[in-house]
């Protein structure tokens, strides 16, 4: 294991775009080279050395752990496109954390802003606070968003989380979101994504879901009229093999897509 | 006898997205003022009269000094404006919907030079429609097709009697068309709205939907259209029997169209309302011809989207900070940027965010240097550091504008601009020259 520690040293008036902070970019580089990697502040290109104190040592991607200290709640795009290694962020973090990531792990010990884990292709994103809107969603205009990997959010996720999630049975890819509670339009346009919510969910959950599983252990403020009750179940088997025990009412939907559908929504009875 | 009045015919009206192109304007030759407007609606007519010199019109460039606006020369005003823009770290260029396309493309040029944020008023009106179209496509048509063919017309969250006064008589309701020879009697008008609007009162059927529950209603309509029997008896205040009846009416029509306004795009659900409406329309095409058209507000907001798109690839909410255009409403849209206080100077062109944006964002807008290119006094220009007086496009200068259905029409000049005013395009050209000078290019 090789740790690299970053500590932010300036107060930010504008967001800082830090898509270069990934284990892939840091691996095999010495501190001086890491300090030269580009960041974007307002309209200017700056370097990591301008904004962060850097210490530690890196080896190959899989063994590199980046630990970020100080308030980075206005730093965007940390962990973009990362394929392995680990990032630990000890504060809130700005938009797009871990977007397009395909491997490795990111832990956020605070709140994350919008588009956390957007277009996730693999790996694990853990947020030990609340997350903003569009968690694990597709970017504007894309019809395939999160395709694999896991996102765990302790608190609440914002609107339209897991938008256009897409699973693949042959290659055993099951994009999964665990969260504490959720805002409106959770899992909209779902094509096989799995969502488990510990608490309550706002309106329009599973809108236009073609197939997939959404399990809600709390209440739904307003269920869509296009969902139909199937019956009651005592446990829910998720496609990734996990079993969730408890009494649930099973609904099928969204019937706007098909008259008979494999889409399932389970709400605690 | 000497002619006192000159008449300009076939004028396109620069007010709403209907862009009526049959106005006749009488101009007093001696005084060079508008004295009569024929064929226009009340609002369009008022706009022509408002171009006449008055207390509300800016005639000379102004700069704010010690809290007061002071008249200065064009050179001085442009110099100050260029200083503000060049020294800003994160400038915002906003507006553009009530001016012509040539000025809009100059705005894109300036934004690219400054690596600025560029946005137009679609951001707070039909931006959600654009988002939905990007997600699921759209079946659109020109208004001429509607006039000649449509027999089922739905107005959803839209009140054209007040917002687009001549829409009904020119394209969608009373007008006789090639296949609709009996005009109003050949058309079935359905209004879906939480309020019993004046449009609802002249409709054949009015469906009262609960506020902000449009999404659920369309989902139910779509499920019924798929042949599903629903568990519920009522959706969004509408009974299932009414929904079934509506579905039968839609399926049995010859040619249907959904016009939707901001009651639909800006109520809860926003772009998802449009998303599901587009899908409903697409699914109805299994049975009959069905289309939808957004009721665009400003006369050239559709043009702003067109011009921005052919220049940058994106219709609104564009960021040039990294030297190339990026697009992400929510991240780069002006209201969100202002709410997070992420801009430090702004140039507002032909728009009044001061009276339309949320108060918290307006506060942040006024905190920083503000340049306003504007013909009239507005709540925004009152707080501007530099006011550059503009001629009104379509009245005092020519140009191109796009109607709500994407048809470009030529705007006419009916009289000369008063005082020292210049067209938006000329002002932006001069500003670009100044900025180039200051950036050392």
Structural account:
The complex is a heterodimer of chains A (269) and B (441). Chain A is mostly beta strands and 269 residues long. Chain A has a domain at 141-153 and 165-269. Chain A is 5% helix and 35% strand. Chain A has helices at residues 23-26, 31-35, 48-51; strands spanning 2-8, 16-17, 38-41, 44-47, 52-56, 64-69, 75-76, 86-89, 105-108, 124-127, 150-157, 176-182, 191-197, 211-216, 228-237, 243-252, 264-268. In chain A, the strands form 2 sheets. Chain A has a 13-stranded mixed β-sheet. A 4-stranded mixed β-sheet of chain A has the order 4-3-2-7. The radius of gyration of chain A is 19 Å and the shape is elongated. Chain B has 441 residues and is an alpha/beta fold. Chain B has 2 domains: 62-124 and 299-392 and 420-439, 3-Layer(aba) Sandwich (Rossmann fold), CATH 3.40.50; 127-294, Dimethylsulfoxide Reductase, domain 2 (3-Layer(aba) Sandwich). In chain B, 37% of the residues lie in helices and 21% in strands. Chain B has helices spanning 42-50, 74-87, 101-114, 127-136, 143-149, 160-163, 167-172, 198-201, 214-225, 240-252, 262-265, 271-284, 301-312, 334-339, 353-356, 359-367, 379-382, 424-439, and strands spanning 5-11, 23-28, 33-38, 62-65, 68-71, 91-95, 117-120, 152-156, 188-193, 205-208, 234-235, 238-239, 255-260, 289-294, 318-319, 326-327, 345-349, 370-374, 386-389, 399-402, 408-411. In chain B, strands 5-4-19-18-17-6-7-15-16 form a 9-stranded mixed β-sheet, with helices on one face. In chain B, strands 10-9-8-13-14 form a 5-stranded parallel β-sheet. Chain B has a 3-stranded antiparallel β-sheet with strand order 1-2-3. In chain B, strand 9, helix 8 (198-201) and strand 10 (205-208) form a beta-alpha-beta unit. Chain B is globular. The A-B interface holds A 13-15, 17, 40, 42-44, 95, 114-115, 133-134, 139-141, 143, 160, 184-185, 188-189, 203-204, 207-208, 222, 224-229, 254-259 and B 89-90, 114-116, 131, 134-135, 215-216, 219-220, 222-223, 226-228, 230-232, 235, 268-269, 272, 275-276, 279, 320-322, 327-331, 342, 344.
